[in-house]
Design brief:
Distance between the termini: 36 Å
Structural class: mainly beta
Number of helices: 2
Number of domains: 1
Largest sheet: 5 strands, antiparallel
Length: 132
């Protein structure tokens, strides 16, 4: 059973969960995801929308999924290079045999879980093989 975060936490995380927004340092230019409030160089950061397409650098196939993910096991987790930064996300709409390093992927908005007690469904960004 998934525990959905409290409404204030969900509201504060909406940009990077729903829009794929990261942070960019105004001083050194480093882009991070998920967003941070301060850069490691001490510079001020601003929110930036990240590219929605990238290349799969590496991936792992998880067969021993938790109870919440067991119905869609195996789960494919990937390290995705978006050009400006890298993100770790679930790869969907592909079997383990279809996934390979170097493939082009694109962001999609998908269901990520449900709170069994309240029935509240949570959504977020996952990636799938690029279409076309």
């Amino acid at each position: 059973m998934m525990r959905v975060k409290t409404p204030p936490v969900v509201w504060r995380s909406r940009n990077h969960r729903y829009k794929l927004v990261g942070s960019k340092c105004k001083a050194c230019g480093e882009v991070r995801f998920p967003p941070v409030h301060f850069c490691s160089c001490g510079g001020e950061v601003e929110e930036v929308e990240l590219p929605r397409a990238g290349r799969l650098v590496s991936y792992s196939i998880v067969y021993a999924a938790d109870e919440e993910s067991r119905e869609r096991s195996p789960v494919i987790m990937g390290l995705i290079d978006l050009g400006v930064t890298r993100v770790v996300a679930e790869i969907v709409d592909a079997s383990p045999e279809e996934v390979h390093s170097g493939m082009q992927v694109e962001a999609v908005f998908r269901r990520i879980g449900e709170d069994g007690e309240t029935g509240v469904i949570a959504y977020g960004i996952k990636f799938r093989p690029a279409v076309g």
